[in-house]
Amino acid sequence: MNAALVSLEHDVLLVVDVQNDFCSSGALAVPQGEAVVPLVNQLAQRFAHVVLTQDWHPPRHMSFASSHPGRQPFDSVEMPYGTQTLWPDHCIQDSWGAAFHPDLQIPHAELILRKGYRRQIDSYSVFYENDRSTPTGLGGYLRERSFRRLFLAGLATDYCVLYSALDARREGFEVVVVQEACRAIDLDGSLASALAAMHAAGVEFA
């Protein structure tokens, strides 16, 4: 990615869920998740505008396997909004796991957006809850500030980065996923499916 391609006025870097629970020793560790941290720090220096996001679940969130007796992490259940993968308890509000990785250093970030705080519904995308209709408000924030192109980095490529990229395209933004600064869970081939879906939606890769 050429530095000259990054506009100071209309581009924003969106750093998705670089939190302790998604890194080594975390409750829902993404393989090599912490490897993105120095890359994201370097990338952020190229942008005047940065938004950080956090998974921010209350205890007993309905996406947790522990909230469904007899179920195990990575089982699936049907929820009112569709099929939900069940996860280990993770990113519980105000916990160590929900905190940003301690080496993430982006002091000029202008917004921290928290998602997944409604107990009855999960939120992969930073734009919408998993019902695909309840907005987080990020789309309006970005439009009000006249941003046109979003660069995405963070965790995980095949879940929160994927859904955020697709929704950003649906909201009319240009989207570039900085693939080197992302890592995937890759559950049952989910990474390949995610990359194909993003390509089909017009997402670019750097």
Automatic annotation (TrEMBL):
Keywords: Hydrolase, Metal-binding, Pyridine nucleotide biosynthesis. The keyword Metal-binding applies. It holds the Pfam family Isochorismatase. It is an enzyme of class 3 (hydrolase). SUPFAM superfamilies: Isochorismatase-like hydrolases. Residues 12-203 form the Isochorismatase-like domain. Its EC number is 3.5.1.19. One of its GO terms (molecular function) is nicotinamidase activity. Pathway: Cofactor biosynthesis; nicotinate biosynthesis; nicotinate from nicotinamide: step 1/1. InterPro entries: Isochorismatase-like_dom, Isochorismatase-like_sf, Isochorismatase_Nicotinamidase. Belongs to the isochorismatase family. This is nicotinamidase. It comes from Metapseudomonas boanensis. The lineage of its organism: Bacteria, Pseudomonadati, Pseudomonadota, Gammaproteobacteria, Pseudomonadales.
